[in-house]
């Protein structure tokens, strides 16, 4: 009984995270300013990382957790670089 509840709740979480990814993709494409697009991209990589984590929980494979860690690191560095570019106009000093 508890395994079925866990599997159903993870499936529901994946559906909600997919809807969140769709909302983030909308903000990336139709954002009125560059700052809105960067925020949408930041939220998109967080939700995609969470989707990979829930897939890893359902399958029991550690590969998805490693991929989520890589997405988190690359997404953070990308967000910092884009924010610095918007603030100063250059990334490398």
Key terms:
93 residues; mainly alpha; Helix Hairpins; 3 helices; 0% strand; elongated
Give a written overview of the molecule:
This protein has 93 residues and is mostly helical. The protein has a single domain (2-88), classed as Helix Hairpins. It has 3 helices and no strands. It has helices at residues 2-30, 34-59, 63-88. The mean pLDDT is 91. It is a multi-pass membrane protein. Keywords: Antiport, Cell membrane, Ion transport, Membrane, Transmembrane, Transmembrane helix, Transport.
At a glance:
The protein is mostly helical. The protein contains 3 helices and no strands. The N and C termini lie far apart (58 Å).
**Can you identify the CATH class?**
Mainly Alpha
Largest sheet: none
Helix tally equals: 3
Mean pLDDT: 91
Roughly how much helix do the residues carry, as a percent range?
over 70%
Principal-axes geometry comes out as: elongated
What percent strand? under 5%
CATH topology: Helix Hairpins
Tally the structural domains.
1
Could you name the ranges where pLDDT drops below 50 across 5 or more consecutive residues? none
Name given to the CATH architecture:
Orthogonal Bundle
SSE-based structural type: mainly alpha
How many beta-strand elements? 0
> What's the N-to-C terminus distance?
58 Å
Order of helices and strands: HHH
Radius of gyration: 16 Å
